[in-house]
What we know:
Number of domains: 1
Order of helices and strands: HEEEHHEE
Structural class: alpha+beta
Amino acid sequence: MGESSLAALQKAAKFVPPDAAEEGEYTLVLSKLLEKKDKNAEDMIIAICKIEGRPDAKDIFVNLSLPSVDGSGDYDDLRSEIIQKFAHTFGIDDITVLATDPSAVIGNTGKVHLTTEEYEGATVNRVKTWL
């Protein structure tokens, strides 16, 4: 094993995972948007947000499942409603920018009420209410 591998493993051994924030109202900062496929091979966008003023807190992951183009999806209305709430909260007037120019909205902020839940043995935050 080389010195760089050893240094990387030493760094990993010292890593302390950040904590989830307590339940409450926070301002989130949109830091990254990723296009992915969900477990059913359907298109989705994952929005990764940071809690403003809380560098010690875990990132917040918001899964935005996209409605089907032809309107045949079982949850198209709900998916559209969630995307519209997300866009409104983050001050995004044209939601198509999420696909055409995602970098244009990085840094946008929005207020939410976060809750906590368990996910794969760890406590994480989820958006309870878009404010």
